[in-house]
Design brief:
With 382 residues, the chain is mainly alpha-helical. The protein has helices at 18-22, 75-86, 97-105, 109-137, 144-171, 175-184, 186-199, 212-237, 239-245, 251-282, 288-309, 319-337. Helix 4 packs across helix 6, helix 5 packs antiparallel against helix 10 (251-282) and helix 11 (288-309) runs antiparallel to helix 12.
């Protein structure tokens, strides 16, 4: 391949044939001098490339050009990117002065314990999410419209990390102590450790997704990340702070989390759509015996976490409510993917939670079509 040619990358290397060497008395001809800019090698073949066909695109193992956005095969992925940009915000837009007063003068010791540890868990979780998307998932997606939304998702996880940092800094908490809690508090560390274990297998860049066993492992890992980690743990994880907000406390931090929750709703919706498309394209079925441990481990980790952060109940909220709502959300996510509910009969014990995803609160965000999402977009679950 010439150093100055970019239209011959799919051509096999030219090799001397026996007849060509014989014509020169069996002597290998000397190497041609390198081409100069603007010149064409004598043996160059003028050839174009076939245009991209959208049918050749796939979630993984696609055969189209990864660098060419259109024609779309997944126009819904591009729409996710456009909607995400309409939800743009930064933590500096929300005042935190009242939160500083609330934290130091109004919160009980139990409420401060809840607030601090929710942030301690989230500060690490969003960095983990950012790394998983950027290092494990995004590189394995073979359609650029998927990667472009995930690039936005990586940015949003970084933005969320900035938001938690801004909250800690505004209130004046000991950042080193808060950031280290996930390492020293077993109940916080347990969730991070479980996530790392479930996601580490697909971090390898050489994972061969043409192998059916590896493909199933990737689908399970992405299911854990999109459905459980983001769709259940994140969605349910903001609830203790929203419980404070409902009583007029820590409203600035809660509003920050509402914006984050809207992003996470989009992340989860995108992930569920990708999983469904992947299973359909590959004729793949998630093994129920492999899914069961995912749910059970996630529930056990969430229950331990809830017992720690809510070791003393706060007004209107306790550990049992937290775990019950996790089960209800898990059932919803399972239905959206199209797999069996893991916790049949779980009830919606916090009906106000869905309102937090839509700041205007016109409609239940997950169970109906939203009438206004920032600038008019709607997120439909199919």
């Amino acid at each position: 391949m010439s150093a100055f040619r970019f239209d011959d990358w799919d051509l096999p290397p030219l090799q001397a044939t026996p007849s060509s060497q014989a014509s020169m008395g069996g002597i290998t001809p000397p190497a041609q001098p390198p081409a100069t800019p603007g010149s064409q090698p004598a043996n160059a073949i003028q050839r174009g490339l076939a245009p991209v066909n959208a049918a050749d695109k796939r979630i993984v193992n696609g055969k189209a050009d990864i660098n060419q956005l259109a024609p779309f095969k997944y126009p819904w992925a591009w729409e996710f990117f456009l909607r995400a940009n309409r939800n743009h915000w930064t933590p500096l837009e929300i005042g935190m002065a009242q939160d500083v007063h609330d934290y130091h003068n109004k919160l009980t010791d139990a409420e401060r314990h809840v607030f601090e540890n929710v942030l301690a868990y989230l500060t690490t979780s969003d960095i983990l999410a950012m790394r998983n998307i950027g290092l494990a998932v995004m590189e394995k997606m073979s359609a650029p419209e998927l990667q472009i939304y995930q690039a936005r998702q990586v940015y949003e996880e970084a933005l969320h990390t900035w938001t938690y940092q801004h909250c800690l800094e505004s209130i004046g908490l000991d950042q080193q102590e808060i950031y280290n809690r996930y390492r020293v508090v077993p109940e916080l560390h347990g969730k991070i450790q479980l996530a790392n274990r479930r996601l580490e297998k697909v971090l390898r860049s050489d994972l061969d997704l043409t192998d059916r066993a590896n493909l199933h492992e990737f689908a399970l890992s992405y299911f854990f990340f999109a459905v459980i980690f983001e769709g259940c743990w994140f969605y349910n994880g903001f609830t203790p702070v929203f419980a404070l907000q409902r009583r007029g406390l820590m409203k600035g931090a809660a509003e920050q989390l509402q914006y984050i929750m809207r992003d996470e709703v989009m992340h989860c919706a995108f992930g569920i759509r990708v999983i469904r498309e992947l299973l359909k394209e590959e004729g793949l079925t998630l093994d129920p015996e492999a899914l069961r441990p995912l749910w059970d481990e996630a529930e056990a980790a969430e229950a331990a976490y809830a017992r720690y952060i809510l070791r003393e109940p706060i007004l209107g909220y306790n550990a049992e409510l937290h775990v019950q709502q996790f089960r209800f959300i898990a059932n919803r996510r399972a239905r959206q993917v199209g797999v069996a509910e893991p916790f049949p009969g779980a009830e919606n014990v916090l009906p106000w939670l869905d309102e937090q995803a839509n700041l205007r609160k016109e409609k239940n965000f997950f169970e109906t079509r939203v009438t206004e999402y920032q600038t008019g977009g709607a997120l439909a679950w199919e």
